[in-house]
């Protein structure tokens, strides 16, 4: 096991010990001026990223109250690019013992970030991670490239339905129904006007703009609480 993988596992374990969801950590990182998506954090925790930015690790160390820089051999108190080799940390590598079964909806078609569910329903077992997956949640597959590089064709998203008030979800990734269509987008409200923008990560796709007086026509189905990357058949 290399040091990057050790750090990735340690981040996930420490987050679970503190009872934090991935979206909680992402929100705290934003306050530290570190911008990363839920899926981006998921890929770090699953060791899919081979390079970790030092500023990100220092911020995670502060938020999760654990010295992740030390695992890499760096001293965060005097970090200047020079490494100081330290003894490797012991990290937990156990398997999940408990799962939640939720519906997995097939996708009939997708375009411009659009998700339309077919009538086919399957079920999928998701590991219990400090209650961040509930029986009331559901899953669906990502299709298209509008949310790349964080969501890819075939990825499975878990949708938390506990908070569907779109006015409280600024900056969140959510499933949105609007104008007879369903979208996986980033929710962003304009300062001053209160107008809603449904944004994609892929700059090739333009924002969907909705005036504040039309918000009653928008329905949020839930926020993204987890992504399962299927590119390497890894659950994250």
From TrEMBL:
Pfam families xref list: Peptidase_S24 (PF00717)
Superkingdom classification of source: Bacteria
Keyword tags: DNA-binding, Transcription, Transcription regulation
InterPro entries named among the record's database cross-references: Cro/C1-type_HTH, Lambda_DNA-bd_dom_sf, LexA-like, LexA/Signal_pep-like_sf, Peptidase_S24_S26A/B/C
GO MF, one example: DNA binding
Keyword Hydrolase tagged: no
Keyword DNA-binding: yes
Gene3D superfamilies: lambda repressor-like DNA-binding domains, Umud Fragment, subunit A
Location of the HTH cro/C1-type domain: 11-71
Protein name: Peptidase S24-like protein
């Amino acid at each position: 096991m290399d040091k990057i993988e050790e750090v990735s596992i340690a981040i996930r374990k420490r987050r679970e010990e503190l009872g934090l969801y991935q979206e909680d950590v992402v929100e705290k990182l934003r306050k530290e001026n570190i911008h990363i998506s839920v899926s981006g954090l998921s890929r770090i925790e699953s060791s899919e990223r081979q390079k970790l930015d030092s500023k990100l690790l220092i911020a995670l160390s502060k938020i999760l109250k654990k010295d992740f820089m030390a695992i890499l051999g760096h001293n965060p108190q005097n970090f200047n690019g020079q490494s100081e080799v330290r003894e490797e940390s012991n990290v937990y590598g156990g398997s999940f013992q408990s799962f939640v079964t939720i519906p997995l909806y097939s996708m009939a078609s997708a375009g411009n970030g659009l998700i339309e569910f077919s009538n086919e329903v399957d079920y999928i077992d998701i590991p219990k991670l400090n209650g961040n997956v509930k029986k009331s949640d559901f899953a669906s597959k990502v299709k298209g490239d509008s949310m790349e590089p964080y969501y890819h064709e075939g990825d499975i998203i878990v949708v938390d339905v506990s908070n569907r008030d779109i006015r409280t979800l600024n900056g969140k990734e959510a499933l949105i129904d609007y104008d007879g269509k369903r979208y996986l987008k980033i929710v962003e409200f304009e300062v001053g006007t209160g107008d809603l923008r449904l944004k994609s990560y892929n700059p090739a796709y333009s924002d969907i703009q909705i005036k504040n007086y039309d918000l009653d026509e928008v329905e949020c189905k839930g926020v993204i609480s987890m992504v399962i990357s299927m590119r390497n058949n890894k659950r994250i």
